[in-house]
User: What shape does this take?
Amino acid sequence: MNTLNLYLSHLDYNYSQIQKQLNPKTQIMAVVKAGAYGSASEAIAKRFEALGVDYLAVAYAEEGEILRNYGIKIPIIVFYPQVDSLKIVLENALEPCLYSRSLLMTFKSLLTATNNKQYPVHIKYNTGLHRLGFPPEDTDWIISQTASNNLNLKSVYSHLAASEDQRPSQLCNQQIALFETIKKAHSVQKNSIPKFHLLNSSGVFNYPELQYDMVRCGIAFHGFANHPKWDALLKPIAVLESGISQIHNVKKGSYVGYDKGWKTPIDSKIATLPLGHADGIGRHFGNHKGSVFIHGIEVPIVGNVCMDMLMIDVTNVKCKPQDIVYFFGTTHNTAASFSKQGKSISYEVLSGLGPRIKRVINE
Assistant: This one.
């Protein structure tokens, strides 16, 4: 009864909208990590391949291996390869992003041991996000190491920490200046010059002059770019719906849910839905913080969200068991607005949707 409907035509539309923001020669990297943001990685990856993206990107090597098993042929970048997964990288012709001296040297040793030459790699610099990446002062060392015969440096990149912030952003400007210095150093290296990229989904809209050679888009393809103005240019691809399992008539002054989560102020009608925090609808959406739509009417989630179920107040709605309830979609609540109700973000809600929710692919 719980269904995540995915509309590939909306993905196509978002892809075209991203293209409109870019120069004709700017390449597109489509990020499909975390099960394509909690959607359906096989269907989404295959659609991107058909659309003609230049790269796919995943977080970890195991995700790339899954895509190869689906039959995906185009280049796949691994953003955060771990030392113990480097063999998976080689076995599946994945392209690792190297972000530390130890990782780079370990991978070079593995390439030597397996007699691999000119293997495609990418270098990640930390310019201010302080998550992963080489410090800028390592640039000369990296240039010397990537001149090796067993490495083919395909791209150099960094990640803005606040690309959606209103411009001017002091932090972003500092990062951009650092990246420009890094780019200048790599642009004069003796072997082939790599591609450069800095922008994520928000950056594409906020810093169009910094496209460089490629952009990395993930959440924008799903209909969100972290600003209402940019979101309006896109279409959400996912619609999460459930259905009523049971309806209770509850007397005034009764408690609903665990830990006496909500006390009914009047005689009420309470509907139970078969979705809970094990499915990705966290407890932070309970107790009148989150809301859903039934027959076009917005109703609150009441009481504490349970592991497998949650309750909604349908006192003023004519409804019955099996009626469809919408959590988010293309109208009313979007994943962004629903997430905000629980002081969360679209990334977290979408990627956290559990496997018990059926994914249905629609054109």
Remarks:
- The first strand starts at residue 3 and ends at 7.
- The longest helix spans residues 170-186.
